[in-house]
């Protein structure tokens, strides 16, 4: 086994690095959107409950497990878990702690590269004089690598590679490089966040226009903090809150184990875990709620925000909104906002490289440099398909299986291991060893009973959705290669038919009855109204794709609307799932060879 010289330089650096691992793009992009989509202020209640009974316990579990494994010279989840229980299976369950990080980094660095690109475009004035539709169109063109609105060929690929090279270079410097970035990045992130949050608080009705006369930033704030109590009984809201806690705290990934493995036996983990957790919550709940939603509502109105809330909303709207502040301030705001997102992203993506590096250094004596660049190579191989086939849904497959399902599965299994196999008595003592605070005794029973039950419920209730994803039940065009194209669902429920409004040689436009949510200021509740919506399909003449419906036709979901040669998105979704499965098998094989090496050296556990 190699001798470990890597360690944290200071407690402040460790806490900032841990907080940086947790504070990421989800704090500013995902959290406010989840709140809007799940009852506004009501979402905060299950969110905080999940933080206290699932987030904090998992932080305690992962910090203490990591430090325990680190005492035996293990710095990644396969052998951290292996050191906590007898039986060969746990080292393979620990594969999740390496697999998830590589798979998530593959697409997370792509989002991170968007922020880097948007900083560049903010400085050079690309968004000057653009309408909101033009800004949204720019994002769509950017993610289509065949197009270029700026004259830079394959721009998305270039920025992705630059972003990945930067991550890999910093990782090659070990914990010292990560700690330096955290000490610079976290204060800058909070500074940028405060500047933009102040603007969100002071915008008021000054952004209203002829197009959006009712725009008011305070409507956005009121909606976020006014509970819609009827949503508290919805399992969907509670599942969304639990999912956001996983996403925001980076639990169930293995990065916390790895960071904590470099602590000394008497180093505090209780206060460190709570400090990093609450710093993340401050950034998310306070700063995250004061930027995107209020500023967007201040210019476009709350109803527009409710109807268009999504992960990419900030990229499709914020550059346009900043232009309303004047060209000079637009540059400053663009650099602050997208710079904030970049620092939030890189402090998280750097953490994702440490489990692989720690494992290869422990088991095969690889240097930090070799470990970092091999991690970069793996991420590049896994990540380029998410860049090239982003619009075909491959990116979403990574986010779902690696960024959601894998987290829940691993968190549930590690909680069972910690509480019932390693043992809660032993685990509780480990948490409290060297602690600078006294942890309330009831948390022992939360970890033992409440946390695994809640995780088990999330796991079991998610299984039907897993089946739907594998069966591609979100589309009517399931065949990889087909001669016919079927109409997708018009409304979310898939019950309404569409009427053909316009037909071109290779285009068809439908109208259909749909529903949308609007905010009623008098009752301070979200209401559902019916309206006429439109959907348009575009086909390719060079693929012999021809529309076969006529104006006035009534078309139901799954009716044929075009013939020709079609290559459907299900091919790319399947490709994404197979790439993820191949990565998991690849890491499992490496863990097997590491085990054989340990047996040969006489240091394997049984």
TrEMBL record:
Superkingdom of this protein's organism: Bacteria
Pfam families reported in the protein's UniProt record: SNF
Membrane topology note: Multi-pass membrane protein
Residue spans crossing the bilayer: 12-29, 41-61, 89-108, 152-172, 184-202, 237-262, 282-302, 322-351, 372-390, 402-422, 442-460, 574-595
Keyword rRNA-binding on entry: no
Keyword line: Membrane, Transmembrane, Transmembrane helix, Transport
Key word Transmembrane helix present: yes
Compartment(s) of residence: Membrane
Name this protein carries in UniProt: Sodium:calcium symporter
């Amino acid at each position: 086994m190699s001798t470990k010289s890597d360690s944290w330089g200071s407690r402040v650096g460790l806490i900032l690095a841990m907080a940086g691992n947790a504070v990421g793009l989800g704090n500013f992009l995902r959290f406010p959107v989840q709140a809007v989509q799940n009852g506004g202020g009501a979402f905060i209640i299950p969110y905080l409950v999940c933080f206290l009974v699932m987030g904090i316990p998992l932080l305690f579990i992962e910090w203490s497990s990591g430090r325990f494994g680190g005492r035996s010279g293990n710095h990644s989840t396969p052998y951290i878990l292996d050191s906590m229980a007898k039986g060969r299976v746990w080292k393979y369950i620990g594969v999740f702690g390496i697999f998830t990080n590589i798979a998530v980094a593959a697409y997370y660095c792509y989002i991170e590269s968007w922020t880097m690109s948007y900083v560049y475009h903010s400085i050079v004035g690309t968004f000057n004089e653009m309408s909101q539709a033009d800004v949204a169109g720019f994002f769509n063109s950017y993610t289509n690598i065949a197009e270029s609105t700026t004259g830079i060929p394959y721009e998305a690929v270039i920025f992705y590679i630059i972003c990945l090279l930067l991550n890999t270079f910093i990782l090659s410097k070990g914990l010292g490089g990560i700690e330096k970035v955290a000490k610079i990045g976290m204060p800058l992130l909070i500074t940028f966040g405060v500047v933009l949050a102040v603007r969100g608080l002071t915008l008021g009705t000054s952004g209203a226009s002829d197009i959006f006369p009712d725009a008011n930033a305070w409507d956005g704030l009121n909606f976020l903090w006014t509970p819609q109590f009827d949503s508290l009984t919805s399992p969907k809201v509670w599942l969304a809150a639990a999912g956001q806690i996983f996403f925001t705290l980076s639990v169930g990934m293995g990065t916390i184990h790895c960071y904590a493995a470099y602590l000394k036996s008497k180093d505090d983990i209780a206060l460190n875990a709570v400090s990093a957790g609450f710093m993340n919550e401050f950034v998310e709940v306070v700063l995250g709620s004061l930027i995107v939603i209020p500023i967007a509502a201040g210019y476009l109105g709350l109803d527009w925000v409710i109807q268009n809330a999504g992960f990419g909303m900030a990229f499709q709207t914020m550059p346009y909104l900043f232009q309303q502040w004047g060209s000079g301030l637009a540059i400053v705001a663009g650099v602050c906002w997208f710079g904030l997102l970049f620092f939030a992203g890189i402090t998280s993506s750097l953490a994702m490289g440490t489990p692989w590096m720690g494992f290869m250094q422990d088991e095969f004596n690889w240097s930090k440099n070799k470990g970092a660049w091999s991690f970069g190579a793996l991420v590049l191989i896994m990540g380029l398909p998410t860049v090239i086939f982003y619009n075909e849904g491959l990116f979403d497959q990574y986010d779902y299986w690696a960024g959601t399902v894998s987290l829940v599965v691993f968190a549930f299994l590690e909680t069972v291991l910690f509480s019932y196999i390693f043992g809660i008595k032993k685990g509780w003592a480990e948490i409290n060893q060297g602690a600078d605070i006294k942890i309330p005794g009831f948390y022992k029973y939360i970890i033992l009973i409440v946390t695994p039950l809640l995780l088990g419920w999330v796991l079991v209730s998610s299984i039907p959705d897993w089946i739907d994803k594998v069966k591609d039940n979100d589309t009517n065009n399931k065949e990889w290669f087909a001669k016919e194209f079927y109409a997708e669902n018009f409304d979310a429920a898939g019950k309404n038919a569409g009427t053909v409004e316009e037909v071109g040689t290779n285009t068809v436009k439908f109208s259909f009855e749909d529903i949308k949510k609007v905010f009623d200021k008098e009752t301070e509740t979200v209401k559902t109204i019916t309206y006429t919506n439109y959907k348009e399909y575009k086909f390719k003449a060079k693929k012999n794709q021809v529309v076969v419906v006529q104006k006035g036709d009534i078309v139901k979901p799954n009716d044929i609307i075009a013939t020709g040669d079609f290559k459907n998105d299900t091919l790319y979704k399947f490709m994404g799932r197979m790439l993820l499965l191949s990565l998991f098998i690849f890491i499992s094989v490496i863990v097997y060879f590491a085990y054989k090496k340990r047996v040969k050296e006489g240091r394997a556990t049984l």
